[in-house]
Write a structure and sequence with these properties.
Elements: H1 3-18, E1 31-37, E2 42-51, E3 54-63, H2 66-79, H3 84-99, H4 122-140, E4 145-147
Parallel strand pairs: 1-4
Antiparallel strand pairs: 1-2, 2-3
The structure holds zinc ion (ZN).
Zinc ion binds near residues 37, 65, 67 and 127.
Length: about 150
Amino acid sequence: MTADIRSLYREIIVDHNRRPRNFREIPDADRIANGDNPLCGDRLTVYVNVRGGVIRDIGFVGNGCAISTASASLMTEALLGKSEEEAEALFGRFHDRIAGPGSGAQGTLGKLEALAGVREFPARVKCATLAWHTARTALNAPGQTASTE
Ligand code: ZN
């Protein structure tokens, strides 16, 4: 990874932490789940509205470190408008890239690539994947709490 790309990725994370996208409750959300990463103290709630199998609206609120907030923000942008099947596939690709045994498929995740650097820091992997586990729980088992422990 070149220094230019590294600094671009850093900028994306800083920007999404400072100004998280879709940082809001959705009052009429039909899928809601909480996420808890006790290792770091990250806690968030993900709200999703699904109509006809497609994610029509998604938002989150909570408190966490820069990585968890930026990851949740980037995730809401990535999942908006996706079908539930596409969301599941993207979760798999993201998880492989961040926490898989190999290095995952590089360069296929767009802006989400900004988070791939955390794979070198196992403790931060849970920060980066918390929002995704929570969104997945919201889609598959709404009302449950996703924990990284
Ligand atoms: Zn964290």
